[in-house]
Design a protein that fits this description.
With 272 residues, the protein is mainly alpha-helical. Helix content is 66%, strand content 3%.
Length: 272
C-alpha cells in the first residue's frame, strides 16, 4: 500500500511536459483544480476529462503508474461520495427503508467522485513530471511578489520541497519497518478497526523516531554547509521562459475559457 503513493515522486522520461518550465506546470495545476470546482455540468467535466487525458498522453508517464496513487484515497473517496449521496436533500429518486436518495444527491456524489479523482491525478501528474529542485525554484519564483509583505518566500518553498522529497523516503522506511515487524510476528490485518489501530503502534513509533532523526541530520547538514536562507543566493539553472512555455500558457487559458463556455451552455445532469 505504501508503494502506491505517487504524490511527491518523480518519473524520469523525455516528454514535452517534463521539459516545460515548472512555473507553467504549477499555474496549470492550480487552474485545473479551480476549473474542477467551477465545473457544474456534464459538458464542463467532459472538457476537464479531455484536457487531463491529453496531458497524461503527452507526459509519457504510464497511466497505471499514475492511477496507483488513487488506491490510498479510495476509503476517503467512498465516504465522501456516500455522505453526498445520502445527505443531499432534493427530489426523491429511491427510498430504501428510511433512507431517501435524491436526484440532487446522485448528481452531487457523481461530481464529487470525479472532482476528487481528477484532483489527485492532476496533482500527481505535476510532481511526476517535475523534479523537487525545479518545483522549489518554480514556487519561489511565483511567490516573489509576497516578499513585499516580508513573507519568507524561499523558506516556504524550501519546506514544501523537503516535504515532497521526504514522502517517498518515509514510504520506503515504512515498508522496511512493516516487513521487520511482520517477521517478528506482528499482525496488521486481522481484528476490528480498533484492534488494527492498536496494532499500528509498533509501526508508528519507530517511523516517527526515524523521521525526527532524518530531520535532525538534514538540519545539521544544512548548518555545516553554512545555509542561512535564500538572501543573496544564486541558481545554477535559472528559470527562463521559452516559446513552448508561452504556448502552454495560451493552451491553459484556452482550456479555462472552453470550460467556462461549457459550464454556461453545456448539458446538465439534472435540469432544474
Amino acid at each position: 500500500m505504501m508503494r502506491d503513493i505517487t504524490l511527491g515522486q518523480y518519473y524520469q522520461t523525455d516528454s514535452v511536459l517534463h521539459r516545460l518550465d515548472p512555473r507553467v506546470k504549477i499555474v496549470g495545476t492550480l487552474v485545473y483544480i479551480v476549473s474542477l470546482f467551477a465545473a457544474k455540468n456534464v459538458t464542463s467535466y467532459l472538457v476537464a476529462t479531455t484536457f487531463l487525458a491529453i496531458m497524461i498522453i503527452i507526459s509519457r508517464v504510464p497511466f497505471s503508474f499514475i492511477v496507483r496513487g488513487m488506491k490510498t484515497i479510495v476509503f476517503i473517496l467512498l465516504i465522501t461520495v456516500l455522505f453526498n449521496l445520502l445527505l443531499t436533500p432534493g427530489i426523491p429518486a429511491y427510498t430504501i427503508w428510511k433512507i431517501t436518495i435524491s436526484y440532487e444527491g446522485i448528481r452531487s456524489a457523481a461530481y464529487t467522485a470525479v472532482r476528487l479523482t481528477f484532483l489527485i491525478l492532476g496533482s500527481s501528474l505535476m510532481t511526476l513530471t517535475t523534479t523537487p529542485n525545479n518545483l522549489t525554484d518554480g514556487l519561489e519564483s511565483l511567490m516573489k511578489p509576497l516578499k513585499v509583505f516580508r513573507v519568507p518566500v524561499h523558506e516556504i518553498a524550501m519546506m514544501m520541497s523537503i516535504a515532497l522529497r521526504f514522502i517517498p523516503i518515509l514510504m520506503e522506511e515504512t515498508d522496511k519497518i512493516m516487513k521487520a515487524q511482520l517477521s517478528r510476528g506482528a499482525d496488521f490485518e486481522s481484528g476490528g478497526l480498533i484492534k488494527r489501530a492498536r496494532n499500528l503502534i509498533p509501526l508508528l513509533v519507530p517511523l516517527f523516531v526515524s523521521a525526527f532523526r532524518r530531520a535532525n541530520d538534514l538540519a545539521m547538514a544544512m548548518e555545516a554547509r553554512c545555509y542561512h536562507g535564500g538572501e543573496g543566493r544564486t541558481k545554477m539553472k535559472p528559470l527562463i521562459y521559452k516559446s513552448r512555455d508561452i504556448a502552454a500558457y495560451i493552451l491553459i487559458v484556452i482550456y479555462f475559457l472552453l470550460l467556462l463556455t461549457a459550464q454556461k451552455y453545456g448539458f446538465k445532469l439534472i435540469r432544474s
